[in-house]
Amino acid sequence: MHVSKSLCKPTACNYECLDACTRVHGEDPPLGFVKDFLSPVIDEDTCTECLACVRVCPLDAISLDGSTQKKIEARNHPKASKSTEKPYEVSEDLSRMSEADTIFARVQFDPE
Known about the structure:
Elements: E1 2-3, H1 10-13, H2 16-25, E2 31-32, E3 41-42, H3 52-56, E4 62-63, H4 67-76
Antiparallel strand pairs: 1-4, 2-3
């Protein structure tokens, strides 16, 4: 797991990653905050890569392999192409659904 220190601002997100990690791993989560660090520290030995912290981070500061930072740097690069064409087509009758209703996201809402 990788935390982008340039993107992580815990005071802006209310420590959502810590809450999600605690729900999955209980009293001793692999993700925690050390007094002198402003971004989370992840214990690689106990992390199960459940991606709960990645899903809830509103700032996209946590990624599995550091790819978030690479994507943002590529997006902000002056030579990056600004294509408005989407690689998919969205149906007119599409309606959004709550992520809480999906089976893979339930881990963050279901303490059991």
